[in-house]
Amino acid sequence: MATTFEAVAEIIADTSDIPLEEITPEKNAFTDLGIDSLDFLDIAFAIDKHFGIKIPLEQWTEELNENNASIDEYFVLSNLCDRIDEIIAVKDA
Amino acid sequence: MLLEYFQMIDVIEALDPDNGKIVTRADVPMESPVFEGHFPGSPLVPGVLLIETMAQASGFMLLPRLKFERMPFLANVSSAKMRSFVEPGAVLQVEAQLEHDGSGFAATRAQILCQGKKVCDSKLMFRTMPFPNETLKENMLDRFSQISRLSAV
């Protein structure tokens, strides 16, 4: 069974035409991979469907806009995968 | 339909916002300034306006689902297929089904039928955002009320 990171990397590669080998855990989806907010909607959609969750994209965006979080906290891929795992754990609890 | 005013949906025939389903009707007018250019001597509803029609049907499903607190703005159109021509006077059945209700976005699948035959279909994605002003919100509420047979029952 694919790890969360492997699944997310495949989703990003499929939706954004970024070679899979360029998608590594330390990369930031926006600042390193050049994904924009519209493209990230497709990624969020695919992540939600793949894992059966609803990632709180609006809440994260608000926190960023209000300087209550850094972009790396949510969008460095290793951190994004940690957040996804947390949401899955809450859902399955 | 008033094509030149982007007023595409005439009647909401069935609506189930909780389950993300809507069926609407759109009556293509016999005459419109749009037909003067598209195309001279051979009037057809432009494909972009059929996409807009599917987007509006999706929107009228999403608005009550969002309790009229947020506005769906079209953000992405994918897999759009224009399967046959739509001519003046056509009566269209426009259907939309929620595919995913995300955080700040929603995805639908929509299609248009004419005399039972599918004329176009597409996947659509919307950003759902607070209304930018009260005028737009009031206009959306008014329009929804005008076309909703359900509210008149």
Secondary structure elements and pairings:
The complex is a heterodimer of chains A (93) and B (153).
Chain A: H1 4-16, H2 37-51, H3 57-65, H4 71-75, H5 77-92
Helix pairs in contact in A: 1-2, 1-5
Chain B: E1 11-16, E2 21-27, H1 33-37, H2 47-65, E3 70-82, E4 91-101, E5 105-114, E6 117-130, H3 134-147, H4 149-152
Antiparallel strand pairs in B: 1-2, 2-4, 3-6, 4-5, 5-6
At the fold tier of CATH, the topology name of chain B is Thiol Ester Dehydrase, Chain A
- Tally of discrete structural domains of chain B: 1
Order of helices and strands of chain A: HHHHH
Number of strands of chain B: 6
Mean pLDDT of chain B: 95
- Distance separating the two termini of chain B: 23 Å
Q: Hey, roughly how much beta strand do the residues of chain A contain? A: under 5%
Q: How does the overall form of chain A come out from the CA principal axes?
A: globular
Defining traits:
heterodimer, A: 93 residues, mainly alpha, Non-ribosomal Peptide Synthetase Peptidyl Carrier Protein, Chain A, 5 helices, B: 153 residues, alpha+beta, Thiol Ester Dehydrase, Chain A, 6-stranded antiparallel beta sheet, 4 helices, 6 strands, 27% helix, 40% strand
Please give a structural write-up.
The complex is a heterodimer of chains A (93) and B (153). With 93 residues, chain A is mostly helical. Chain A contains 5 helices and no strands. Chain A has helices spanning 4-16, 37-51, 57-65, 71-75, 77-92. In chain A, helix 1 (4-16) packs across helix 2 (37-51). Chain B has one domain (3-152): Hotdog Thioesterase (Thiol Ester Dehydrase, Chain A), CATH 3.10.129. In chain B, 27% of the residues lie in helices and 40% in strands. In chain B, strand 1 (11-16) and strand 2 (21-27) form a beta hairpin. Chain B is globular. Classes of the chains: A mainly alpha (93), B alpha+beta (153). Chains A and B meet through helix 2 and helix 3 of A and loops of B.
